[in-house]
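User: Design a sequence. Structure:
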């Protein structure tokens, strides 16, 4: 195996291994070696997200345990496979975690999540909650030299929103209602502003998150669900929103979305619900009002590079997403805080750098 590397790699590394639902162990495990078409990334930061919460609870990827989760990571190239060109040791990078076969109908159309052979780094195979992670070189996303490496770890979640905007067919001057003002809802808000949406209405009963939406540029923020329909009507001349985005994953909000979208408008299904959750809608109403329903799940391919461009050019306000940092050794505590403390917008795990702020 031909590997280029500046120094000898250690034989083992620290990693947060999810050995069973709700049970993390920080262990010394073997460092993965890159194949000829891979690179090894020395991880600096790794973010936690809702998918990690589902994995932690055992409702997703339970058949993959024990597993090193973590799919929102950034760091620097530590080793390069012998067949890899165009990348450099020490280069700042993040990664497109969605790895398909590269040849099927879905991969050719950049619909990699539908590839029968698709695996996701940190979800199906070991990921970034470790000192090193192996990534196919074709899935590396370079980080601009001027971009802080901790912000680069946000490329994956931003890419999910970039893809959602594309699939929703959002146009300049269209009204948008976002149901949910958590981290994902806030990113939907910020990217919709960049895409020229107006007005943007955000609904969330949590007062802190409602305030965050207001500070992030929402035109209308509603924290009382009883007032939402009236605010939407006033903001859209009584029509309803051109686009309604469900960003939480609650069936009640999905049903509400169909009541608040205008005739001829679209509902974007983004929030991940329980696998067996069922929402009810009236096909009669969908047909007569020519309503659209579009799902969107994850950024991939060009979505990742476009997200990196937005971050590198400071089009998004991301300081709140990197303000809460835990060390790897406190991963279980970090996960519990992420699940239970709604004051926390986002948590990153510091693995290869000195903590700037600690939780």
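Assistant: Done.
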């Amino acid at each position: 195996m031909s590997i280029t590397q500046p120094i000898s790699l250690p034989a083992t590394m620290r990693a947060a291994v999810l050995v069973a639902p709700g049970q993390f162990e920080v262990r010394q495990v073997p460092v993965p070696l890159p194949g000829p078409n891979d690179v090894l990334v020395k991880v600096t930061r790794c973010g936690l997200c809702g998918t990690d919460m589902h994995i932690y609870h055992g409702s997703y990827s339970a058949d993959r345990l024990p597993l090193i989760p973590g799919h929102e990571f950034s760091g620097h190239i530590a080793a390069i496979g012998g067949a890899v060109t165009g990348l450099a040791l020490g280069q700042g990078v993040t990664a497109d975690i969605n790895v398909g076969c590269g040849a099927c109908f879905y991969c050719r159309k950049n619909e990699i999540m539908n590839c029968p052979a698709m695996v996701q780094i940190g979800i199906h195979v070991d990921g970034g909650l470790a000192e090193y992670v192996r990534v196919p070189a074709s899935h590396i996303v370079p980080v601009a030299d001027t971009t802080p490496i901790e912000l680069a770890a946000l490329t994956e979640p931003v890419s999910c929103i970039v893809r959602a905007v594309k699939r929703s067919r959002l146009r300049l001057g269209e009204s948008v209602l976002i149901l949910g003002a958590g981290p994902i809802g806030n990113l939907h808000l910020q990217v919709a502003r960049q895409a020229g949406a107006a007005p943007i209405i955000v609904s969330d009963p949590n007062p802190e998150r409602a305030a965050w939406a207001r500070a992030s540029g929402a035109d209308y923020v509603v924290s009382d669900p009883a007032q939402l329909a009236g605010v939407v009507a006033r903001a859209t001349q009584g029509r309803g929103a051109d686009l309604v985005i469900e960003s939480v994953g609650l069936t009640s909000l999905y049903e509400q979305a169909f009541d608040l979208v205008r005739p001829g408008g679209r509902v974007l299904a983004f929030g991940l619900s329980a696998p067996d959750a069922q929402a009810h809608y009236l096909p009669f109403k969908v047909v007569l009002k020519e309503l659209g329903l579009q799902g969107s799940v994850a950024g991939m391919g060009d979505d990742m590079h476009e997200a990196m461009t937005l971050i590198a050019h400071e089009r998004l306000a991301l300081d709140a997403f990197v303000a809460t940092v835990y060390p790897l050794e406190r991963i279980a505590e970090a996960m519990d805080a992420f699940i239970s403390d709604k004051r926390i917008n986002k948590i990153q795990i510091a693995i290869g750098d000195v903590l700037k702020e600690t939780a």
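Residues 118 and 330 are 31 Å apart (CA to CA). The first strand starts at residue 3 and ends at 4.
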